[in-house]
Design a protein that fits this description.
Layout: E1 7-10, E2 14-18, E3 25-30, H1 38-46, E4 56-57, E5 61-67, E6 70-76, E7 87-88, H2 89-94, H3 100-116, E8 129-133, E9 140-144, H4 155-162, H5 164-182
Parallel strand pairs: 4-9
Antiparallel strand pairs: 1-2, 2-3, 3-6, 5-6, 7-8, 8-9
Helix pairs in contact: 3-5, 4-5
Bound molecules: adenosine-5'-diphosphate and magnesium ion.
Adenosine-5'-diphosphate (ADP) is lined by residues 8-14, 16, 26, 28, 38, 59, 75-78, 85, 88, 127-128, 145-146.
């Protein structure tokens, strides 16, 4: 059983810890108050979906582990070229590094790319999108670390995964909502 000590991020539903044995992986633990087992939904979805290609990627999934905080889902640790954890679009805006205009441009690029891949999303808020500085030359990649797949495992989700136009329709409605809620100003 792994002992988790280093918290590197936290959202509404999960705590994210550094893998104690290797710094290229992180472990996501459900918060007790979460109503949906997000880890279970993601693991179900990623076992069936094709990884998106293009402007946005998602972290590689490395399965489940037992930890002192309950079952954890292991993912690739998204890091910049120097080794520090990549920051989210929200963090970059808060730190004055990214302008609102560029935030919106990054979001539009991310959605367009996921739409083309018919890769299901439900929550592309800016703290779920990390900007990875991939190389010394300044190359950057957007990585969606959360908010992909269906919101819950349901027949409708399975149909969307099998019928790309239906996935795209869903992505359009998610985009409209996210735009109004997170990228409006
Ligand atoms: N694979 C990852 N690599 C680096 N940081 C991550 C990774 N996944 C999540 N994070 C960080 O942890 C935060 C919370 O993770 P997230 O999966 O969004 O939790 P929640 O499901 O509770 O919203 C993210 O906003 C991000 O800053
Ligand atoms: Mg999140």
């Amino acid at each position: 059983m792994l002992e988790l000590t280093t918290l590197i991020g936290s959202g509404r539903e999960r705590d994210v810890f550094l893998h104690p044995g290797r710094d290229d992986r992180i472990i996501k633990i459900m918060k007790p108050e979460a109503t949906v087992d997000r880890n279970a939904v993601e693991s179900w979805f990623l076992a069936r979906a094709k990884r998106p290609r293009g402007a946005v990627t998602i972290p590689a999934l490395h399965g489940w582990v037992e930890t002192d905080r309950g079952p954890g889902l292991v993912y690739q640790h998204i890091r910049d070229e120097g080794g520090t954890t990549s920051r989210s679009l929200t963090q970059l805006v808060n730190e004055g590094i990214l302008e609102e205009k560029l935030l919106k441009a990054a979001f539009e690029m991310a959605i367009a790319s996921l739409r083309e891949n018919a890769f299901l999303i439900y929550d592309p808020r800016p703290d779920n999108i990390l900007m990875m500085k991939a190389d010394r030359a300044g190359g950057r990649r957007l990585v969606l670390v959360d908010g992909f797949g269906p919101n819950v495992v349901a027949p409708r989700a399975m149909v969307r995964m099998l019928v790309p136009p239906l996935a795209r329709r869903k992505i359009d409605s998610v985009r409209a909502r996210a735009h109004a809620e997170w990228y409006a100003s």
